[in-house]
Amino acid sequence: MRWLSVALPPLVAALTLASLLTGPAGLGMSESLHALAWGGDGPLPIVMRDIRLPRAILGAVVGAGLGLAGAALQGYLRNPLAEPGLIGISGMAALGAVIAIQTGLSLATPLALPLTALAGAAAGVGLLAALAGPRGGSVTLILAGVAISALAGAGTALVLNLSPNPYAANEIVFWLMGSLADRSLLHVWLALPPMVLGAALILPTRRALDALTLGEAAAQSLGVSAVALRWRLIAGIALTVGPATAVAGAIGFVGLVVPHVLRPWVGARPSALLPASALGGAVLLLAADIAVRLIVPERDLKLGVLTAIVGAPLFLRLIWKTRSGGRV
Amino acid sequence: MAAAVMIAAALPAGAAPQRVVSMNLCSDQLAMMLAAPGQLISVSGLAQDPRLSPMADRAAAYVPNSGRAEEIFLMRPDLVIAGTYTPPATVAMLRGLGIRVEAPPPAESLAQIRAEIIRMGDLLGRQDAARALLARFDADLAAVRRPAPRGRAALYYANGYTSGPDTLAGAILDAAGYANVASDHGIAATAPLPMELLVMSQPDQLITGAKWPGRSQAEAILDHPALAAALPGMARVTDRTWICGIPFVIDAIRSLE
Question: Distances from the Cα of A210 to the Cαs of A188, A216, A220, A273, B78, in angstroms?
Fold first, then answer.
């Protein structure tokens, strides 16, 4: 635990710096940082401030949001398989974002983009909580998630295929896999405030989630209100996952891998796992976003490809352990 | 001219097709320019779209086709002009039905435009009309062409794609006297150019792709604040005269004046 709280923040800072210094233009380290901090003439400050800075900030913020939402969801549902991307919350957020973009709402007011994504995410997480609340088993959760994911994916594809724009149909990949390429500071301002609010709602639930590990009855006797906790988490998760998906697409497995890797280090206590997962999510997504720029720089490799390659085997392993009856 | 008359006379009578169907936007327009009255019976529906076709008004007088083998067969053509990117299954089906199908490649340079004018004249048996069109094209081109360097320009399309010198858009830039920024990055055909490389190149002129109705993330890149910050002044926008390697590229070259 101590070890994590000492090691993770510097790691996030180092990867943010590395993200700022990674790009096809091959700029010198000192001159680009100077241009980032002090500006100046010519194209260098524009590249650093308008292209690389939003990408680095979003990598950290979106990763942190997904890690936090995953840990909170797993704590609340008491199920290590719960993950915003896998069980359709990100998909519903993407559907909301796509509707805002294609109806022209987001053109009328940019705020419509995170707001509709938020509404989509809230619908997704609300539906899941109703179908597979703390008492629902893994099978219920996964089945509900599969159905919601499929519905959201089909809705997204339908809206994009109906668009009169010839490029729109190709964007199904972006909404399913996610990318941070060529995001601007506008996207940062659209996503960051609601995500901070969401984190502010989720983080105080740590004690309640700790109590919930003892079982629902025990938690209630410790003064945890099940209804209040549920609504607080639904709002908090929607506020973090919705805007994150609106600007970066649906990036899966971050909320699965990070809590799973960190859980042994924090003694499986949700109160310690939530902040650690936020930092860990930032680390994972920043690293993945640096990797997509280094592996095939000339192609826009989607982030979700990398996170799925890391996350899917882990997910299978978790299912295997659940299947054989062992507690995970 | 005399040689042309001799060649035309040497061709067997009736060699020229009488019922021609074109199913490709670019061949549609060349065929409309060159065909004899009544010879061309159908063009693709795209040729009637004013966003794509500078000849949309003229194309409205023809029966549109949507490129399906069945409808084209029912028109009983004796020549079908397709394109390199026509679905192979459609071409094979039409050929299997005994119809002559020609698929000229898209013209990606000024020299290829000249060659395609002549080829279309030969296909339609309208060599004289083709020669006259070619002479007009050469004269117009000489009038608009700018050999003097005018600066460096960058083409930038949806999804961050740019076009190098081996493309039609690159040829238009070159004829208008601009050096192409894509060449600096080793791009000869059409390939993605990362936005930060574009910004670092500091082109004098930015030419972006036209936007389509509806919205897409792919086109949103053209509104990125970094482009506006790096390239003050209006970006020019490509239009329907940039799409096909036909004499209308003269208008595209002129639009860069």
Answer: 32, 11, 12, 10, 80
Question: Within this chain, do residues B205 and B83 fall inside the same structural domain, yes or no?
Answer: no
Range of the domain at A201: 2-323
CATH of the domain at A179: 1.10.3470.10
**B1 pLDDT more than 60:** no
Q: Is A103 on the interface with B (CB under 8 A)?
A: no
Place of tokens 């939530």: A274
- Helix or strand holding residue A161 (H, E): helix A138-162
Cα-based distances in Å from A295 to A290, A299, A300: 9, 9, 10
pLDDT at residue B40 greater than cutoff 50: yes
Domain range enclosing B194: 151-255
Model confidence at B2, in pLDDT bands (50, 70, 90)?
very low
Q: At what angle do helices B2-10 and B127-144 cross, to 10 degrees?
A: 150
What pLDDT does residue A291 have? 94
Spatial neighbors of B37 by CB under 8 A, at least 6 apart, are none
Query: What six digits make up the tokens of A120?
Result: 């989509």
Q: Considering only residues 176 to 195 of chain A, which have any Cβ-Cβ distance to chain B shorter than 8 Å?
A: 182, 184-186
Q: What's the pTM value of the predicted model, to 2 decimals?
A: 0.84
The residue among B155, B151, B185, B191 whose CA lies nearest residue B170 is B155
Share above pLDDT 90 across residues of chain B, in percent, rounded to a whole number: 72
Disruptive mutation site among B196, B221, B243 for chain A (greatest number of A CBs within 10 Å): B196
Instruction: Determine the straight-line distance between the first and last CA of chain B, rounded to whole angstroms.
Output: 34
ipTM of the complex: 0.76
Asked if the Cβ–Cβ distance from B196 to A44 is below 8 Å, we say no
Considering only CB atoms, B226 lies closest to which of A46, A167, A298, namely A46
Q: Is the pLDDT reported for residue A265 higher than 50?
A: yes
**What is the pLDDT of chain A when averaged over all its residues?**
89
Domain boundary among B140, B165, B194: B140
Q: Does A31 touch chain B (CB under 8 A)?
A: no
Output b/e per residue, B110-130; b: 16+ Cβ within 10 A: bebbbbbbebbbbbbbbbebb
Burial B131-152 (b: 16+ CB within 10 A, else e): eebbeebeebbeebeeeeebeb
**B157 near B148, Cβ under 8 Å?**
no
